């Protein structure tokens, strides 16, 4: 099993991360009213109480609104900042930014990376970001230019370590060659309905380079949780969730816990980023590490998730 004590905030105490993408309850920052603000603060406080340490953001979540909501909590309770490993991301630019005619695009230019980071620092009301990630590969990525931006941010004490998201192994290698420090994380979609990373070299590269794999949408956006039903275009997954229910009943846990524990059995040390904004579900998810999925169960679920037997 990989060890990941590389975060300056200390070792990852909880083997799970909390994802802040849904806390505002809207993608439009103008819709964040008093009720949405209170719900967001309640979700974050529930995550702290449940023991989460690593909190994942992005500049685009509610167009900065999610970072602002977390920053308000740090201003109210400064001791929380020291207990938090803050991750955030840059590099995706929506249509209309900054000109009405600007297209949706990815932007890893030095100026954009530095400006985005400085804006996130302000919204989060913090002096440093623990893990700064590039959100999606920029087709025009110049690794040397990214390296210069990262060095400037690290030298100014604004970022402690860097990572990527949705990067295939060849792009991780191409970027790493121009960086002074090793990339710390690759945040990718991994769950029982999305198995690509097990087969495309992503997890092997994480093992080889000691990169921490952060799994986004570990419940597939919700359907892998108890009571959820698989997407209609994937009928073979009905059998998968039935088997998960059986294991959950036998182990006296929830299906959510089975889904998370399945990910966490992988030797690359996959860290699921739990995305619920419901305080009760946030607390329940945090206990998943205590459950052991046996090797036989792991493979049984893999085969049902693939919808085909192993070679
Ligand atoms: N890097 C990227 O490109 C990328 C992309 C997407 C996400 N992310 C990161 O990953 C984090 C997690 O993503 P996610 O929110 O999609 O994760 P998720 O945990 O797979 O899904 C969370 C959603 O599932 C719902 N849910 C949970 N349990 C449920 C149940 N038993 N029945 C029905 N619905 C249930 C939650 O609703 P309630 O809130 O009501 O519980 C919430 O809407 C995000 O916050 C973000 O940090 C990154």
CATH classification class: Alpha Beta
Bound molecules: NADP nicotinamide-adenine-dinucleotide phosphate
For the residues shown, what is the average pLDDT? 94
Q: Which structural category fits the helices and strands? A: alpha/beta
Shape: globular
Itemize the secondary structure elements and their pairings:
Elements: E1 17-19, H1 34-50, E2 54-56, H2 65-76, H3 79-82, E3 85-90, E4 92-93, E5 105-106, H4 110-124, E6 129-134, H5 143-155, E7 159-165, H6 169-176, E8 185-189, H7 196-199, H8 202-209, E9 212-216, H9 237-251, H10 255-264, E10 271-274, H11 279-285, H12 295-306
Parallel strand pairs: 1-2, 1-10, 2-3, 3-6, 6-7, 7-8, 8-9, 9-10
Antiparallel strand pairs: 4-5
Give the structure's gist in a few sentences:
With 311 residues, the chain is of the alpha/beta class. The chain contains 12 helices and 10 strands.
Can you walk me through this structure?
The protein has 311 residues and is an alpha/beta fold. It has a single domain, classed as TIM Barrel. The protein contains twelve helices and ten strands. It has an eight-stranded parallel barrel with strand order 1-2-3-6-7-8-9-10, surrounded by four helices. Strands 4-5 form a two-stranded antiparallel ribbon. Helix 1 runs parallel beside helix 11 and helix 9 runs antiparallel to helix 12. The longest helix has 17 residues. The mean pLDDT is 94.
Keyword list:
311 residues; alpha/beta; eight-stranded parallel barrel; two-stranded antiparallel sheet; 12 helices; 10 strands; binds NADP nicotinamide-adenine-dinucleotide phosphate
């Amino acid at each position: 099993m990989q060890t990941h004590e590389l975060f300056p905030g200390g070792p990852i105490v909880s083997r799970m991360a909390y994802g802040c993408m849904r806390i505002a309850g809207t993608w439009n920052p103008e819709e964040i009213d008093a009720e949405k603000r209170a719900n967001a603060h309640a979700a974050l406080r529930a995550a702290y109480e449940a023991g989460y340490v690593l909190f994942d953001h992005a500049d685009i979540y509610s167009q900065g609104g999610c970072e602002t909501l977390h920053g308000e909590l740090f201003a109210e309770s400064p001791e929380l900042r020291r207990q938090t490993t803050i991750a955030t991301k840059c590099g995706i630019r929506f249509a209309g930014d900054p000109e009405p005619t600007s297209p949706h695009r990815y932007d890893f230019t030095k100026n954009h990376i530095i400006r985005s980071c400085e804006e996130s620092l302000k919204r989060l009301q913090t002096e440093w970001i623990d893990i700064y990630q590039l959100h999606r590969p920029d087709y025009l990525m110049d690794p040397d230019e990214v390296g210069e931006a990262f060095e400037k941010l690290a030298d100014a004490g604004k970022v402690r370590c860097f990572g990527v998201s949705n990067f295939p192994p060849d792009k991780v290698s191409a970027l790493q060659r121009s960086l002074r420090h090793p990339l710390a994380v690759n945040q990718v979609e991994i769950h029982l309905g999305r198995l690509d990373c097990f087969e495309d070299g992503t997890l092997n590269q994480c093992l080889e380079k000691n990169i921490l794999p952060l799994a986004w949408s570990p419940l597939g956006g919700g359907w892998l949780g108890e009571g959820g039903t698989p997407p209609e275009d994937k009928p073979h997954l009905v059998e998968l969730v039935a088997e998960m229910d059986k294991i959950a009943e036998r182990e006296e846990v929830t299906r959510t816990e089975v889904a998370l524990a399945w990910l966490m059995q992988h030797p690359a040390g996959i860290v699921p980023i739990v995305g619920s904004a419901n305080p009760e579900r946030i607390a329940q998810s945090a206990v998943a590490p205590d459950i052991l999925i046996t090797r036989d169960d792991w493979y049984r679920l893999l085969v049902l998730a693939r919808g085909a037997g192993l070679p």
